[in-house]
Amino acid sequence: MSSVADIPINKHLGITYREGTQSLHLPDDCRIRNYFGGVSFCAQFALAEAASAQYLFDRLGMDLETDMPTLRNAVTKFHKPTEGESIAKLISLEHLYEEFQRILDDRRKIVTTVHVAVVSDAGVKALDAEFTWLVLRKENL
C-alpha cells in the first residue's frame, strides 16, 4: 500500500494522496454532496480519518509489515458546509517520531492522538477532528 488512499472505501470516495505535500484530497464530486449541495459531513469525516492514519505513516514511521493500527476514538467538530475540493491538514501529533518508535519498540504498543482539520480549496474550515489510535507492534519480529 502506497497510501491510505488505496483502501477501497477511500478509493470509492475518490480520496487521493499527494506525495509532494503529504496531503489527502477529496474531489468536488456530485456523488458526495449533501442535500444542500455542499460536501457531505460523512465524506469529510472519512477524509479526516484517512489523513490521521496517513500521518502515522508519513510523520511517525508506522509500517504495516510490523505495526497494526486500530482507531480507538474520534472527536469531531463540524464548522461549516463547504463546496469544491476538500483538503486534510495536520494540526498536531501527540508524539514525535523518535518517541513513537521508542515506545513501540519497548512496550510493543502505543496510544497516540492525531489532530487534523478539513478545509475547502477556498480555505474555509469544514471540521476539526482528533483521532486516537492504538498501534500494536507484532511480537514475532
User: In which order are the strands of the major sheet placed?
Assistant: 1-2-4-5-6-3
What is the arithmetic mean of pLDDT? 93
Radius of gyration: 15 Å
Task: Please tally the helical runs, counting DSSP H or I stretches of 4 or more residues.
Answer: 3
Stretches where pLDDT falls below 50 for ≥5 residues?
Answer: none
> Count of DSSP E strands?
6
Strand content: 35-45%
Helix content: 10-25%
Coarse structural class: alpha+beta
Order of helices and strands: HEEHEEHEE
Alpha carbon gap, first and last residue = 20 Å
Largest sheet: 6 strands, antiparallel
Please give the oligomerization state of what you see: single chain
What is the approximate shape?
Answer: elongated
Task: Describe the 3D structure.
This protein is an alpha+beta fold and 141 residues long. Helix content is 25%, strand content 37%. A six-stranded antiparallel beta sheet has the order 1-2-4-5-6-3. Strand 5 and strand 6 form a beta hairpin.
Q: What descriptive keywords fit this protein?
A:
elongated, 6-stranded antiparallel β-sheet, alpha+beta
Entry summary:
25% of the residues lie in helices and 37% in strands. It contains three helices and six strands, in the order H-E-E-H-E-E-H-E-E. The longest helix has 18 residues, at 41-58.
What is the topological layout?
Layout: H1 8-13, E1 16-18, E2 23-26, H2 41-58, E3 67-78, E4 86-93, H3 97-107, E5 109-120, E6 125-137
Antiparallel strand pairs: 1-2, 2-4, 3-6, 4-5, 5-6
